[in-house]
Amino acid sequence: xxxxxxxxxxxxxxxxxxxxxxxxxxxxxxxxxxxxxxxxxxxxxxxxxxxxxxxxxxxxxxxxxxxxxxxxxxxxxxxxxxxxxxxxxxxxxxxxxxxxxxxxxxxxxxxxxxxxxxxxxxxxxxxxxxxxxxxxxxxxxxxxxxxxxxxxxxxxxxxxxxxxxxxxxxxxxxxxxxxxxxxxxxxxxxxxxxxxxxxxxxxxxxxxxxxxxx
Amino acid sequence: xxxxxxxxxxxxxxxxxxxxxxxxxxxxxxxxxxxxxxxxxxxxxxxxxxxxxxxxxxxxxxxxxxxxxxxxxxxxxxxxxxxxxxxxxxxxxxxxxxxxxxxxxxxxxxxxxxxxxxxxxxxxxxxxxxxxxxxxxxxxxxxxxxxxxxxxxxxxxxxxxxxxxxxxxxxxxxxxxxxxxxxxxxxxxxxxxxxxxxxxxxxxxxxxxxxxxx
Lengths: 214, 214
Prior knowledge:
The structure is a homodimer. In chain A, 21% of the residues lie in helices and 39% in strands. The first copy, chain A, is an alpha+beta fold. Chain A has a single domain, classed as Pnp Oxidase, Chain A (Roll).
């Protein structure tokens, strides 16, 4: 079935992308405005895009044309943010922070969460989150009046102690993080519990396999 | 546990990001060079970042400084690519296309896959893939000599017939796509089989709940 995007509404384009590009990692983004008022909200138009330099990307939307939602507005103004990652235990709290509260509601407090000061940026991290990534704005790309892409350079990362296998070697016990991914519709998520291993094949190994099969 | 990125090697920065930002959707990117030679390779530094305009992003690497791998080089030269999505049935074939074959090996043929002509761009799509997204280059952001970010504007999307619930309404049966996500290490993946539903809460609903609780 072919969907020609030229003939589709903006909503239909969005629906097709969020229903197919899955599973999406979730950024629970913490920012503060110029007065220090805290904001937290989840975004699944998110991923790491480079290891070195260490860059993460978030697609942020607008409440109205030229009026970015709090996250985008605060990042543009302060150039700093913290990406917390979401495990299953924090799913319900994350969902509370996604409610469209009128400002200046502190979503973090309403969701029953606590914060801890960051080491390199002004926005704090969510204490309950197993991973927090402190970022400074690298580039902001305005796609149009209602959409921008935030590229953030990673300054520091906090990982819950129990999930660190070897700090010196930067080995993390990823399954222990129990992170969830965003799926389709208004509320489907996937756990990362059903896994399989398929190691990458080195060229020499591939050639040896081919030789053995002949 | 705090990891200060200023004191880490490039490899350690990469290891921390790929071990924590999970599950990552996978782009199986098909490109052609100026002579029409086909290339396909999987990337998990990938996601949709905007619905309208419809934008996907891919982080691409280099074989050597200033010498992007085939995917990035071809996109820079031709400004076109197709993102195929990966289901469990195609995992092994995808892994074959990730082998570092010396050019001009046709990874798609070696992996036993077939291609179908695209409707809006020159690179074909992988016939076996349940979703294919035809893209043209929107912006290429060079992060350094070895890393670039490709922003692609979606021109068209093909979805396997059985997974289309209502074409006019753009309703897709996402679980039927059986897509996989990239996890940690050199070869861990997650299925999207273990799901839960947690609908977004409207402000009115939240307020009604609070009132009921008082």
